[in-house]
Amino acid sequence: MKIAIICFDDFTDLDVFLPWDLLNRVRLVGGIADWEVKLLGTAPTHVSMAGLRIPMHGMVEEANTFDAILFASGRGVQPLFKDPAYLSRFQLTPDRQLIGSMCSGALLLGAFGFLTGKRATTYPTVASQLIAFGVEVVNESFVNNGNISTAAGCLAGQELSAWVIDSLMGNEMTQRVLETVQPVGQGLEIVM
């Protein structure tokens, strides 16, 4: 299984690193050798909103053949969702791929037409922009529409990651992964 997290300059750190960590735990905790998570971008490195420069594992076009694709959020989404050249680099197929977004990354899903006529969530400051794509924006941390999901609020990255793991590996693996990050003394309550 191949999972992509799509990065760009000015991405929100936690919206990349929380899913990165959780998704990689399938391989590390679950012992699934053919589980691969990659950070993909349009340059060899991208710089987060907090100023952290990180290397990419490949270019965004690789995502077209992956099993799951998650779009990060941050200020860097604003020019990208309006850029036909950037959008044309993706040839995603929701009938065979899981496609999700964190916060403002939903604007990219809106630009692709994946959310038209559907319920979705996003960060409140960009809700009106997402509505312009014919989306019913709801005040929820996670919204699933089959193979398309949106999450809002950095810690909702746990729900988005759990959706990917559950969809590709099942609930038992999801529970195993999430148990490794739960605060000590708190039970696990996420059921997909």
From TrEMBL:
For this protein, the record's Pfam families field holds:
DJ-1_PfpI
SUPFAM superfamilies to which the protein is assigned, alphabetical: Class I glutamine amidotransferase-like (SSF52317)
Please report the stretch or stretches of sequence annotated as the DJ-1/PfpI domain.
1-160
Tell me the domain of life: Bacteria
InterPro entries given for it? Class_I_gatase-like, DJ-1/PfpI, INH-QAR
This chain belongs to the protein called Thiamine biosynthesis protein ThiJ
